[in-house]
Every structure is written in structure tokens, then in C-alpha cells.
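agent: user wants the structure for sn-glycerol-3-phosphate ABC transporter ATP-binding protein UgpC from Tissierella pigra. delegating to structure tool.
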Amino acid sequence: MAGLVFKNVYKIYPGDVEAVKEFNLEVKDKEFVVFVGPSGCGKSTTLRMLAGLEEISKGEIYIGDTLVNDVPPKDRDIAMVFQNYALYPHMTVYDNMAFALKLKKYPKDEINTRITEAAKILGIEEYLDRKPKALSGGQKQRVALGRAIVRDPQVFLMDEPLSNLDAKLRVQTRAEIIKLHERLETTFIYVTHDQTEAMTMGDRIVIMKDGVIQQVDTPQNVYQNP
Ligand code: ADP
Ligand code: ADP
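agent: tool returned. relaying C-alpha cells verbatim.
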């Protein structure tokens, strides 16, 4: 069980750049929430603070009941998928997916079971022995999703995961991510600048501009009261 709470969160970068201000939000356990807004409005910064990749300047972030301000990234029950995939180029797909589990000293059988299951869900069973450079963009993004899934995190973070894919693949992968959310029953936070993605993917949309939240509502209500 892990909902999220942001309490009056700020991020101020050196030079007094207020990237995120007065950010207040509660996300329910298993909810799918999309952060949307133009480039530079603070979406990634908010996600990175949640993942522990960026310090919180002011305010509090809770994952479940835990205040995570001082919890290092590896101790947050979170997996993140980036737009550039961030796969290890010298490792096979299998080893990319196994890496985090090996670090956590999971038994080999357990690692193998998790990778086999995730590969089946994503349709990448045939690529397990390949290196990333032998994969298409869509296949790489599946591997990145697979690497996140095997960790069985409480919270899934995705930062513009489709923006390097062509239009057709984007539509297809969008539908697959929605299905994945239904199947995993996990909290999803998804960042995009694409309004169509936002309107079609989330249970709720958080519209951001200049570091502040402008509106939080269901896609239906946003459509009716823009
Ligand atoms: P988005 O994800 O919505 O495109 P970001 O969170 O990346 O927005 O950026 C929000 C603001 O913070 C922008 O004005 C950006 O230039 C600034 N910013 C982001 N990262 C840094 C950084 N490391 N140092 C200084 N300013 C930054
Ligand atoms: P090690 O870290 O001991 O060198 P590897 O990373 O090579 O081990 O592999 C870990 C385990 O996963 C081994 O038992 C290996 O046989 C198995 N394995 C590696 N690649 C695949 C694959 N593509 N499909 C199924 N099992 C694999």
C-alpha cells in the first residue's frame, strides 16, 4: 500500500530558480496520476524529488506513511522509467533486468522467475540475450519497463517514456501502459507535455505551469472545465 503526499513542497535551484512552489497533492494507493504542462514547468523536478534524485528545498514528501525527505533513492520503494531508456549498453536485456535484483541479493531462481514473467507481459522473451544496441526504440522502452517491473515497486514513475517513439508506436505503447497499470495494481505517476497522453491515460491529471499546480481533476472534468 503506498499512496503519496506532497506537503507544500518547493524546489529552489541555485540562482533562486523556483522550479516547484507550494506543491500540495495527495495520490491514492494504486491511482494513475499524470503530471502535464509545458517544458520547464517543473514536472521532472517534482518526479525527481519523489524518487530522491533531487533534494527537497522545503516541504515534505510521504510515500505511504514514511516521510522520505532524507531517505536515499535505493531505499524508496520506487522504480523509474526515463525517456532515454537508460539501459546498460554492455549488458544483455536479461542482465539489465537482473541488475537491481542481484544488488539486492535475490536468489537466482527468484530473479529468473521475475524476469521470465515480466518478459512475457511485455513480449520481450525473444530478446533476452540481445544487447540494447540490437533493439528498436520500442523494444528498448519495453526493456526499461521490464527492468522496473521486476523490482515489484509500490510506486512506478515515468518521465516522458514515449517521447522518443514514433507516432504509431506511441499510441500502441500508451495503451499497453494503461493495461500494465491495471495488471500491476500499483501507483503510477506519469509525466508528459502531451495533452492527448494526459487526457487518455490517467485517473487524474495534475496541470502545472511555472512550478505551480493550476488544476487537479479527472480527465473528464478537465475536458468540461478547462
Ligand atoms: P519540466 O520537466 O516540466 O520540463 P523541469 O522540472 O525540468 O521542468 O524544470 C523546471 C525548471 O527548473 C526550469 O526552469 C529548469 O530550467 C529549471 N531546472 C531544472 N533543473 C535544473 C538544475 N539542475 N539547475 C538549475 N535549474 C534547473
Ligand atoms: P553471473 O552473475 O553468475 O555471471 P549471469 O548474469 O550470467 O550470472 O546469469 C545469471 C543466471 O541467469 C544464470 O543462471 C544464467 O544461466 C541465467 N540467464 C542468463 N541469461 C539468461 C536468459 N537469456 N534466459 C534465461 N536465463 C538466463
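agent: one observation worth passing along. The first helix runs from residue 43 to 51.
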